[in-house]
């Protein structure tokens, strides 16, 4: 055999080696893909920093929140990627901005990692118990879609009605707060 040993593999071993080689090629191509390289972190808590919405900053969303009834409790802005699998799903928001509300109108800034399509909610948790108390809390949604009810219970608006696009700079948005009475 001219000094070389002949190696024989069973069909199962050959199939396993082929599968491993195919996985290595696929994983190698994923490492080069920019989409696969983007890691998404959910439920990140941030605080209101208006400097992130200053001239030349971005991508970010400058939100003017109108109709706040009081300075009580907490104001929470949740930002979602505009994907049906994430919209209004628990712990599937990208960021939750936490700040103190200011009666009337106030401005908050939400920086985002990339330009793209988003949707957001604003929750005025009047007693700051981290729950939605429909009898006292206020809420708002990007693009201010009409919120319909069924037997007095608010129905979530569609993603398409709340979707907006953020460019490379600062995107301005107005969200009107609504309360039960």
Word description of this protein:
The protein has three helices and eleven strands, in the order ααβββββββββαββ. Helices cover 17% and strands 34% of the residues. The chain has 181 residues and is α+β, with helices and mostly antiparallel strands. The protein has one domain: Sandwich (Immunoglobulin-like). About 18% of the residues have low confidence. The longest helix is centred in the N-terminal third of the chain and has 22 residues. The strands form three sheets. Strands 1, 3, 4, 6, 7 and 10 form a six-stranded mixed sheet that branches. Strands 5-2-11 form a three-stranded mixed sheet, with no helix packed on it.
Level-1 CATH class name: Mainly Beta
CATH architecture classification name:
Sandwich
Helix content estimate:
10-25%
Helices and strands: which structural class? alpha+beta
From the N-terminal CA to the C-terminal CA, the straight-line distance is 92 Å
Main sheet characteristics:
6 strands, mixed
Low-confidence stretches: 4-36
Taken as a percent bin, the fraction of beta residues is: 25-35%
Q: How many domains, in number, for the residues?
A: 1
Give the key terms.
181 residues, alpha+beta, Immunoglobulin-like, 6-stranded mixed β-sheet, 3-stranded mixed β-sheet, 3 helices, 17% helix, 34% strand
What can be said about this structure in brief?
The chain has helices spanning 11-32, 34-37, 159-162, and strands at 44-47, 60-68, 74-81, 95-99, 104-111, 116-125, 138-141, 149-150, 153-154, 164-166, 170-176.
């Amino acid at each position: 055999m001219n000094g070389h040993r002949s190696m024989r593999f069973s069909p199962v071993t050959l199939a396993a080696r082929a599968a491993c080689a195919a996985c290595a090629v696929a994983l190698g191509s994923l490492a080069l893909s920019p989409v696969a390289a983007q890691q998404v972190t959910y439920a990140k808590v941030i605080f209101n920093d208006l400097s992130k919405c200053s001239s030349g900053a971005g991508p970010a969303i400058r939100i003017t929140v109108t109709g706040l009834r009081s300075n009580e409790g907490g104001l929470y802005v949740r930002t979602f990627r505009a994907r049906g699998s994430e919209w209004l799903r628990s712990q599937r928001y990208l960021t939750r901005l936490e700040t103190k509300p200011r009666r009337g109108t106030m401005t908050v800034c939400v920086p985002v990692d990339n330009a793209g399509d988003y949707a957001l909610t604003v929750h005025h948790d009047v007693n700051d118990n981290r729950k939605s108390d429909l009898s006292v809390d206020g809420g708002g949604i990007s693009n201010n879609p009409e919120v319909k009810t069924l037997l007095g219970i608010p129905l979530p608006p569609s993603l398409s009605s709340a979707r907006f696009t953020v460019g490379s700079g600062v995107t301005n948005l107005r969200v009107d707060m609504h309360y039960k009475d």
